[in-house]
Structure formats: structure tokens, C-alpha cells
Write a structure and sequence with these properties.
About 30% of the residues lie in helices and about 15% in strands. By secondary structure, the protein is α+β, with helices and mostly antiparallel strands. It is elongated and about 95 Å long. This is Sigma-54-dependent Fis family transcriptional regulator. Keywords: ATP-binding, Nucleotide-binding, Transcription, Transcription regulation.
């Protein structure tokens, strides 16, 4: 079942029926950036997928099949069992590895319904590797369109549709929420089509002046209106023999919609004030984030625009693509500077502004890292008013990036609250303080008095050496073993020359 020219090599079994989705695990984040985007796909129901450091093997186009391999992943397997109704249960390994689902640490078996996997579930192992557990409706394919990034079913289907649209001259209507990449898709259709060597002429219909929209699109004869001292060439004439992309078509002025309909029906149009018609030879692509079935838009024009319709998926429907998108936007060197915990929050967020919003958030994160600050999720993403994000969600693919909670008095917190906050945030004081709704200095004082949390400089050096060796040099895991904050421990390790 392997075609090296079109699909990834996967340990794929035949599903029970053609309508049954395939269960997939996609590597969203890994310390080795070459592993990000690799997938394991299976169609077997009833049998457990045993996920450990050594199995199963994940594959990426053009690369070998490899297991997760990271030392922070347990040798003992986490078992993933799919039932006959396409529900999936997660059975924790008999190990000390921290397992999180959508930002919530798991302590017992968890069951997920089929529709929850449709949204994608973010699984964090050992606070070092992120996986997305999701459905695939098609086999993985090699990406031959570098601008349209993604490894999941939605991204593959989009690329297939773009290729089909490029193979003909029908009008194309691109539908999708703001920021989903409609202009990128339009450019890909043009680049793959017969007119690739010609121009792609782009017009923002929302920016057209209603009184001059006709002249802007179709041109005008000399003297056609006040100030028209010479013949004016319109966008349709500019795009003769090329591709005309009408972005934000839902905002087309009402007066030009019948003219657009005439062009689409017969190819003819008349410049403003001209004595005779001209024939348009432009290939038309339009895009909108609006519902054009509304009465305000010319329905006959809509039917003509719908020659070939492509619905672009929102980012929340393709969480499995988050890792490859981050590397595509930032590059491997910059992208790998992001903390794994932050990437997990980014992957779980619903992104109402989609890829455009993600790009801006990633750019802010890099600016903060360059300034020596640790970017926090709520500093990168403005949460909607009224959104409660103080606690991790239930496993449902919803927001897992916690914004700061309302400030709480230290007297309101138990010793267990403080200990759990440190443990859940990789023993990082800044993140734990944020989750508790207090300042770092306040949390420092509470840590000093906590009976179960140790000061790094009060721990015997031999014990620190043993914990560091058991953690294979991972400071966060070492801090968890010693039950001490990560930042002071890191400074002490440098002082003791135990850390390069």
C-alpha cells in the first residue's frame, strides 16, 4: 500500500470500511525539528497502539521511519485503544513520565469520543514531545506545493482541490474565514495553471471607491467622467491573458455586480463612456469570508462564481499542522527557540484569526525571546472578552493556553495548590505564578516556606549529580526529581560546572 511518489510509508492497515476514518498520530513538536510533521497512521479497531520511546515508527516524506526516540519518553508504552464506535481510550504507562492532554496532566485512563478526535487532541509526553491524535480521511501525501503547508487531511484535500482548479479555466470561488490563506491558494492555482508565466492581477474589492469601481474594473474612455483626461485601462484589461483575483468579493459594490455577471456569462464588458464592448480573456478567481447566500449579494453572480468552489479549513480544524506551520513561518532555527509548553498552548487554541493571527503571535514571541524575555501565551494572544481561561479545559480540543487567573491572596492558597502549580508548569516560577494569579516575588516567598519544595542551594551536590544523570541532562526533569524550582537550579548547575 506504499507509493513512494505519492504517499508516506506508514504501518497502515486496511480500515474495516471505506467510510471509517484512519487514526493518526502526528508529531507536532520534538527536540529534533526534522521529526516535526512525521506521522503514524493506522486503520485497525480494537487493537492497542503502544506508544513509547521505541514504537511505533513515524514517517515523513523523504525520510526514514523512526520511533519518537527522545530520552524523556518512557520505555513503558502509553496504550491507545480504538473501539468499534470510533471512541478512543488512553491508558497511562507504568512510569513517571508526565502525560498531558490539551494542557491537563493525566492521572488515570481517559476516554475520548469520535467527534473529539475530529477536532484533534494534543498529547504531551514528558513535557518534551507533542503529538496530535486525530482522524485522517486520506492517506498521507508528499507536499508538492511548498506555500500550502500541512500534513493532515484538511491540508492534503486543499492541495488536491487547488491542483484540480489549476487544471482548468473555470471561475474559482475561495471560501474561508479571515486569515485562512485564500490569497495563498489563489497564487498557487495561478502558479500551477496554464497562465503561470503571465501576471496575477489582485484587486481588493473592499477597497474600491463605489463611484469609481466601474472605471477601476472595466476602464473608462477619455472624458467619461470629471477628471478623465485620458483613456483609463481597467483591471480586466490589465489581466488580459492572465489571472484576475478579486479578493473580498462579498464587498463588491452593488453597482458593479451586474457588470461582473455579464463578464462571466459572455466575456464581454464595456468601459465607462466607451462606444463598444471589449472581450475579457482573464481567468477569474474570487475569494470571500462572507456568506454570499445573503440577499445583499447578486445571487446570479454567485452562481457564476461557483464554477469551482474551494472551502479553506480554519486553523482549529488542523491542529496536527501546528508544528510544521511554526517552522514554515519562523524557520527551524528561530522556531525551535519556542518552549514546548508554549507550543502546546498554541496548538490547543482555536485561533479566530487563523494563520494570519498565528503569524503575528509567533513574530511577537521571537521579539520577546530576542529581548531576553520568556513569552507567555496570554501576551501573544488576546482572548475574547468574557473567556474564562484560568484552568485547563476538559479533553475536547478547546483552549488549553491559560491566561492569568484573577489575583488570589496567598492566604487563599493551600500548600497543595502551590506544589501542584509548580509541578504542572515544569517547576518554572514565572509560569506557576501566572497560573496562580500572583507576582513572582510573592511566589518566591511562599516557596521559601513550603515544606515539600526545596531550595536548590540546600540540596547535596551528590544528590544533584545523581538527579541530573537520571534526567539525562534535562534541567526541567532534574528539577522535578529534586522538587526545586528550575531557574535557581539551572544557575547552581552552571556554578558547579555540571551544565555546559
Amino acid at each position: 500500500m506504499t507509493d513512494n511518489n505519492r504517499t508516506l510509508t506508514s504501518p497502515l492497515s486496511h480500515p474495516d470500511g471505506a467510510d471509517r476514518p484512519l487514526l493518526a498520530l502526528t508529531i507536532v513538536w520534538h527536540p529534533d525539528p526534522e521529526r516535526i510533521g512525521a506521522q503514524f497512521v493506522t486503520g485497525v479497531q480494537g487493537e492497542a497502539v503502544e506508544l513509547s520511546r521505541y514504537a511505533p515508527s513515524f514517517s515523513l516524506a523523504g525520510a526514514d521511519e523512526l520511533p519518537l526516540g527522545h530520552m524523556g519518553i518512557s520505555r513503558e508504552p502509553l496504550r491507545i485503544v480504538r473501539d468499534a464506535l470510533d471512541g478512543v481510550s488512553l491508558h497511562l504507562p507504568d512510569s513517571r513520565m508526565v502525560v498531558e492532554l490539551n494542557g491537563r496532566q493525566l492521572h488515570d485512563k481517559v476516554s475520548l469520543a469520535a467527534d473529539q478526535l475530529r477536532d484533534g487532541q494534543i498529547l504531551a509526553l514528558g513535557r518534551a514531545v507533542l503529538l496530535c491524535l486525530h482522524w485522517m480521511t486520506v492517506l498521507p501525501k508528499r507536499n508538492r506545493m511548498p506555500a500550502l503547508v500541512g500534513v493532515g487531511s484538511a491540508a492534503i484535500a486543499l492541495r488536491d482541490q487547488v491542483a484540480m482548479a489549476a487544471s482548468n479555466e473555470m471561475p474559482v470561488l475561495l471560501l474561508g474565514e479571515t486569515g485562512t490563506g485564500k490569497e495563498i491558494a489563489a497564487r498557487a492555482i495561478h502558479a500551477l495553471g496554464r497562465r503561470a508565466t503571465a501576471r496575477l492581477v489582485t484587486v481588493n474589492m473592499a477597497a474600491l471607491n463605489e463611484s469609481l469601481a466601474c472605471a477601476d474594473l472595466f476602464g473608462a474612455a477619455k472624458g467619461a467622467y470629471t477628471g478623465a483626461q485620458a483613456e483609463r485601462k481597467g483591471w480586466f484589461a490589465e489581466a488580459d491573458g492572465a489571472t484576475l483575483f478579486l479578493d473580498e468579493i462579498g464587498n463588491a459594490p452593488a453597482g458593479v455586480q451586474p457588470m461582473l455577471l455579464r463578464v462571466l456569462e459572455g466575456g464581454d464588458y464595456r468601459p465607462l463612456g466607451a462606444a463598444q464592448d471589449r472581450h475579457a480573456t482573464a481567468r477569474l478567481i474570487a475569494a470571500t469570508d462572507q456568506q454570499l447566500d445573503a440577499a445583499g449579494f447578486n445571487q446570479a453572480l454567485l452562481r457564476r462564481l461557483e464554477g469551482f468552489v474551494i472551502q479553506l479549513p480554519p486553523l482549529r480544524a488542523r491542529r496536527e499542522d501546528m508544528g510544521v506551520l511554526i517552522l514554515h513561518v519562523l524557520g527551524k532555527e528561530a522556531g525551535m527557540r519556542l518552549p514546548c509548553a508554549l507550543v502546546a498552548q498554541l496548538a490547543c487554541y482555536d485561533w479566530p484569526g487563523n494563520i494570519r493571527q498565528l503569524v503575528h503571535a509567533l513574530q511577537r514571541a521571537i521579539l520577546m525571546l530576542d529581548a531576553g524575555a520568556l513569552p507567555q501565551f496570554e501576551q501573544l494572544v488576546r482572548l475574547p472578552a468574557g473567556r474564562s481561561a484560568g484552568a485547563p479545559p476538559e479533553p475536547s480540543g478547546q483552549l488549553a493556553g491559560q491566561a492569568p487567573q484573577a489575583r488570589r491572596k496567598p492566604s487563599q492558597l493551600s500548600e497543595a495548590d502551590i506544589f501542584n502549580a509548580m509541578a504542572q508548569h515544569a517547576w518554572t516560577i514565572q509560569s506557576a505564578a501566572l497560573s496562580l494569579g500572583m507576582s513572582r516575588p510573592t511566589l518566591y516567598k511562599l516557596l521559601e516556606r513550603h515544606p515539600d519544595i526545596r531550595r536548590a542551594d540546600h540540596i547535596a551536590v551528590d544528590e544533584i549529580r545523581r538527579a541530573l544523570a537520571a534526567s539525562h541532562g534535562n534541567v526541567a526533569r532534574c528539577a522535578a526529581l529534586l522538587k526545586t524550582p528550575t531557574e535557581p537550579l539551572r544557575r547552581l548547575l552552571h556554578k558547579l560546572e555540571l551544565l555546559a
